[in-house]
Amino acid sequence: MIPHENRAVDHSATGCTTRVVLVDDHTLVREGVREILESQSDIVVVSEAANSGDGIAQVAQHRPDIVLLDVELPGGEPTETVTRMRELSPSSQIIILSMYDGPQLLRKLINVGIRGYLLKSVDGQELVAAIRSVHRGSDRMVLAVSRESLGQLQSSADDVLSARELEILKLVAQALSNSQISTRLMITEATVKRHLRNVFVKLGAVSRIDAVNKAIAASLINPPHGQVNRRLKTG
Fold it and tell me: What is the pTM of this model?
């Protein structure tokens, strides 16, 4: 086991706004990623870990803004690791870094709440941009995978959309806002947004209207009275 490395950071001195926990079992990878991130004035790596158990412990202790997580870690299955991290630090957003490019694992990880999935072939600028995008709280998920994986993910959307996601999408098609949907279903607005993020990724959609139109085209939902139009609210 490679022990994690905790790093004391003076946040007032750095002016850092994005705190990252880096979890990867390869020391050289951690060193390279840390060097890229800490060359940015607004990002700092507050802790590192080399296995699932240590990663979960560091996320619980530091409650970072972002977790960069390798999927091939000793000590835990990736969906279980993500689930546990989200339970212990709900505000932490998890971005996967992986050598593996396959839609099956990607679907599973989306369903447990990741906010990004990046292949390790991405360059430093793409990694930094993904972290900033997720930390800003955008409803969109950040993906950097092959066209083939995205195509398979989209083509099998009818198999992976959950009953709740379909329910929410039907209400979106009726031009309800996120706030109205949350009231109708008696769930939080944050939960509505999370489900919609998942829907966007699964359908390959870039907007609410696009998601509804693609779902209708795939016969996942029935068209509302009249055609979906630009009255759809952004929530």
Answer: 0.62
